[in-house]
Amino acid sequence: MVEGFISNIQHFSIGDGPGIRTTVFMQGCNLMCPWCHNPETIPREPVLMFFKSMCANCGHCVQLCKEDVHSIIDSLHVIDLQNCIHCGNCQKACNGSLKLSGKVMTLSEVFMNIYKDVSYFEESKGGVTISGGEPMLQSDFVEALSKMCKEKDIHVIIDTAGCVPFAEFLKVIPYTDTFYYDIKGDRYVYDNYVFGDYDLVISNLAKLITKGYDVRIRIPLIPQVNDSVEVMRTVYTTLKNLGVTKVSILPFHRLGSGKYDALNQEYGFKNTKELSKKKIVEIVDIFESIEVEIENH
Amino acid sequence: MPGQKQTTLEDARDYCMVGCIENFIQGKQPPWSDGRYNSPKYIELALNNGVCMHSGVQIGPKTGDVTEFDTMDKFLDSLYKQMDFGASQYARIFKNENERYDRYNYMQPFLSCFCYPCIERALDINDGGALYPSVHGAGCMGIATFANSLAAIELNVFDKKEITMTELKKALVNDFAGYEDIQAKLLASPKYGNDDDYVDKYAVWYVRVHDEIFSKHKTRDGGSFYTAIASNISNIPAGLEIAATPDGRKDKAPLSDAASPMHGSDKNGPTSSLNSLAKPDYTRVACGTVVNQKYSRSMFVNDEKRRRLLDLIKVYFKNGGQEIQINSVSREVLLDAIENPEKYNDLVVRVSGFSAYYNTLSREVKLDILQRTEHG
Predict the structure, then answer these.
(1) B20 flagged as catalytic
(2) B185/A63 Cβ within 8 A
């Protein structure tokens, strides 16, 4: 039985492709983008998020946890993650302040979950988006899942950063309608911020485009990382040479900052301001012969 | 119109709405009436052999000692009898009240002017002037409280056998004080609104049984008793009449609203919620259902997003849904949701390329969205 390591399955997802979609967020990523707005999906092991501001200090989790991870001390919820076995029991009676990311699910469990919304996909011309984390790190699972979706005529998008051997792509290509493909910047950005193999990302993209598969390029625009004219010119030239005709630009936002608090992690972009309209226009202008769509939050 | 068997097709198609959701044969029917039926109270009575936990008085029939039951079906049989008895009492009380408004004491010349047969027959609307008899709608409350309670009993007492019926009863009598472990297990049990058949089957049962027990009764001029799955805000005072329930709800706390899932317990998004809500057979609910869903204003900012909501509603209706009301959230609510997050677990807001539960966002993001909403 093929199993997947899943962060979350989100229903009524309307920003991850056309129509009403269900997005399967796979757990685990091989890049380390410091601005990531889903930081809980990066580790390749389960993580428990604790949204402190939502906690009612009700203590139901204390009753449900068998490992003494949770306690109420002086009417306040205190967590000691050392003994946590990531069973997810604590979140079952919780108002939503506890959230486990990273759960092993069988292929049929995931598919049955998706299939429940098939009438919404049909009505809205939506489907399934397999995102992450990096879904291509679990290509066997993604292959099996997208194959099952295709057998039921469900539209499939794979949202990837492309930093895996091309052999992984070959597995999923027959069952994928569209790839959402992230380009984070030039070689310098890959070497110094996201720690990924730039050449691999670009050569995979070149192969996908050459073979004529539907690829939608998405570029996160991050202040002080890749928003300079120099970096974006390099990105533009590279993409133009690959024959890309359309890209989406996703301007930086801080909406994931609550998750960093919940993971007890420092968020390096906490005080970074969102980009001005002027700045975004300046970047768009660089993409002379490539059509640009701005995907605002 | 389901249930109105004596209505001609032509007249049925000429129906109108009266009140909020009740359908009515315009110009041919006497005034409508409705009431409230406190459904989850009968779970309390079934658990206590007909004795009310608040007053200690025997108000329902003796349906057996639940601690001796070894199957869920036996519990459901008892519950059915309690509900059936309750519906008979309801019908009696209603008729006593209704008979005060007879043709001698309560003539309605004004209304009669708008009823065609009254004019032809020269009779008052309450004196045989109307073509069809008056109908009554029993507003059945707390469907989610009810379904969640039954699922929690099935799971914990009969399925996993982690809680005995005796322990459950003690926990409820003590409003969970000293029984926090039991309350946590009950709260952690499956909840209506997440597309989970384990609990949704009890909402299906709820709708079927209410129709069965109420359709036995007739109004004083021979019209039907219908059911409605609606409560307006009566779910709050109704909760005051009910002790702690097996879904983990505390003594006197509000019941679930109308046909909606329990506040904050539908955690898988609006499609899963509507999938659950579409499971009961609403053709048995001739007096209508009310479903409330909340969205932030940002769900309405462009055609693309509005179309997604439209698709959502269309699918719900195709799947058998009757009524849904989509609410856009005001600034006041968003502010209140920052201060009192526990009240807003099901509030979905458009965040960036995705929609998220408002409560999962950091304070700053909430303030950010608040600002956007103000400009939007």
Answers:
(1) yes
(2) yes
- A108-161 pLDDT, tens digit each: 999 999 999 999 999 999 999 999 999 999 999 999 999 999 999 999 999 999
Q: Provide the edge-to-edge strand list for the sheet that holds A246-251.
A: A103-106, A3-13, A21-26, A127-131, A155-160, A178-182, A215-221, A246-251, A291-294
Contact B187 A37 (CB under 8 A): no
Residue B350 has a pLDDT of: 58
H helices of B228-362, in order, are 235-240, 270-277, 303-318, 331-339
Q: Position A189: which residue type?
A: V
Q: What is the DSSP letter of A19?
A: S
Of A119, A254, A261, the CB nearest to B315: A119
Instruction: Please write the tens of the pLDDT for every residue from A9-56.
Output: 999 998 889 999 999 999 999 999 999 999 999 999 999 999 998 898
CB contact, 8 Å: B271 with chain A?
yes
In tens, the pLDDT along B189-231 reads 999 999 999 999 999 999 999 999 999 999 988 899 999 998 7
Range B326-365 burial, b when 16+ CB lie within 10 A, else e: beebeeebbeebbeebbebbbbbbbbbbbbbbbbbbbeeb
State both tokens at B202: 């009890």
